[in-house]
Amino acid sequence: MIKIFDTTLRDGEQSPGCSMNLNEKIQMARQLERLGVDIIEAGFASSSPGDFKSVEELSKAIKNSTVASLARCVKNDIDVAYDAVKFAAKPRLHIFLATSEIHMKYKLQMSEEEVLEKVKKYVSYAKSKCDDIEFSAEDATRSDVEFLCKVFAVAIEAGATTINIPDTVGYITPNEYADIIKRVKEGTKGIENIDISVHCHNDLGLAVANSLSAIEAGATQVECTVNGIGERAGNTALEELVMALKTRRDYYKKDTNIVTEEIMNASNLLAQITGVKISPNKPIVGKNAFAHESGIHQHGVLKERTTYEIMDPKSIGLNKNSIVLGKHSGKHALKDKLNELGYEVTSDELEKLFIKFKELSDLKKTVFDEDIRAIMVRELQNVEDGYELVDYNAFTSDGKDSKTVIKVKKKDEIIEMVGSGKGPIDAAFDCMAKITGSEIKLKEFSIYSVTQGKDALGETIIKVENNGRTYAGKGISSDIIKSGILAYISAVNQFNGGEVSEDVI
Ligand SMILES: CC(=O)SCCNC(=O)CCNC(=O)[C@H](O)C(C)(C)COP(=O)(O)OP(=O)(O)OC[C@H]1O[C@@H](n2cnc3c(N)ncnc32)[C@H](O)[C@@H]1OP(=O)(O)O
Ligand SMILES: CC(C)C(=O)C(=O)O
Ligand SMILES: [Mg+2]
């Protein structure tokens, strides 16, 4: 069994912009407990009164997971950390001191002897207060391994029950890390019943790979954070590590206590609390991690999910994968989407719709359900009988009402009208209302750019109400007045498909 030590609330909070207040930390800690993490590092209690309060309150709130506070080899840090975690059902003190030459020389200005002495003194002091002691050799992966073994032996002798070998600056590679762990296991006196922990940073994008390699070499605890947040490039992402172990159980043969179905909840909650968005291609929890856009993949997944999915989305708490329609999609996916939206189509109809779908997907990054409905309305529900834009002219100048002249075709009839309003789109809608003679209430109106650059295509989305029902209309054009008129027509054609208003006749 691999213990999962979550440091989202300590190292994770060291990410710029990821500070959390007390309530947010408690909410997150409760979710971490539901997720089944073995240890929650709640903070660095002596670093500020706010951190002390969070560690203290969290210790009172959490019942199943161990609650840890970080502390330097400083008496006051240890006293304050213990005062905060002493309320926990299972408290832990996490003491650290750097062991690399570079940190000892420039940062701590201590000799190896002084470091050994401090470790002995402060781990013993921590042990006099708390049974569960973790000792971390900061910057372990850039430390001399023989010295590292001596430091760990002293920490174990002084009462440490977990020793941590952090890759503080994300420098090590997987094989080298495995080698350090093996050498520490072989060369440290008293290490037999001690948990060996690893704590990786992602500066070279190797945090998860290094943690997995460490497990193969004998590590029994992995330190990680939800969504991989943490100092600089972040820490080992909990969801990636846990799902790698679960998905490749055949290879690693190790389990964790993580309730993987709670992963999405944890990830979403953290993103919501910190305001830090998850990139779409982030493994496991990114929006695209279980999305399929290309026709060949979609066809495979629709026939048998495992053709292109190595994990079941349900296993991380996602309802299902997503088939995203776009320019690379094929007919199988389009048919599946039509069925999902409640349309049964013949193969002839599908062929016809597919042509329209490809035309649209060349214009749009993503084809949404509403786009498919709009294609259906036009192509299959006899909206050839609806209004079709023939021409338009807009006259607008500052401070005066605008006028828009619209010419439409309905069946074989050409209708032309003038409308006026505050701006050319308002005037166009006035004109279309005259043409259709419908009692239409405009409820929503928005314009988006669907492509980039000076000649960007604008998409107008409107919602109109007619006889108590709401209809959505969309139009796309590089001219926003035209996209507005097309949106209006597409909405109107849904309830007025065919009938020319009597006023117009
Ligand atoms: C790798 C890691 O993630 S370690 C954890 C990093 N997290 C943090 O630093 C967040 C919280 N930190 C803080 O709020 C502050 O740094 C505090 C309150 C802890 C200390 O603040 P200050 O007293 O102003 O010290 P400052 O941060 O400027 O410098 C760090 C001091 O700790 C010393 N120090 C660093 N690590 C250790 C250690 N493990 N044990 C003992 N002393 C240490 C440094 O030598 C330096 O000492 P000096 O002030 O005598 O020169
Ligand atoms: C305090 C230690 C474990 C740490 O965060 C690191 O070395 O990266
Ligand atoms: Mg760290």
UniProtKB/TrEMBL annotation:
Entry annotated with the keyword Transferase = yes
Q: Which UniProt keywords apply?
A: Amino-acid biosynthesis, Branched-chain amino acid biosynthesis, Cytoplasm, Leucine biosynthesis, Manganese, Metal-binding, Transferase
By what name is this protein known? Answer: 2-isopropylmalate synthase
Q: Name one GO cellular component term.
A: cytoplasm
Indicate the segments annotated as coiled coil, or none if absent. Answer: none
Q: Which residues bind Mn(2+)?
A: D11, H199, H201, N235
Taxonomic source organism: Anaerosphaera aminiphila DSM 21120
Any idea where the Pyruvate carboxyltransferase domain is?
Answer: 2-264
State the Gene Ontology terms under molecular function. 2-isopropylmalate synthase activity; acetyl-CoA C-acetyltransferase activity; manganese ion binding
Q: What is its EC number?
A: 2.3.3.13
HAMAP family given in the database record: LeuA_type1 (MF_01025)
Name any cofactors this protein relies on: Mn(2+)
**Chemical reaction(s) catalysed:** 3-methyl-2-oxobutanoate + acetyl-CoA + H2O = (2S)-2-isopropylmalate + CoA + H(+)
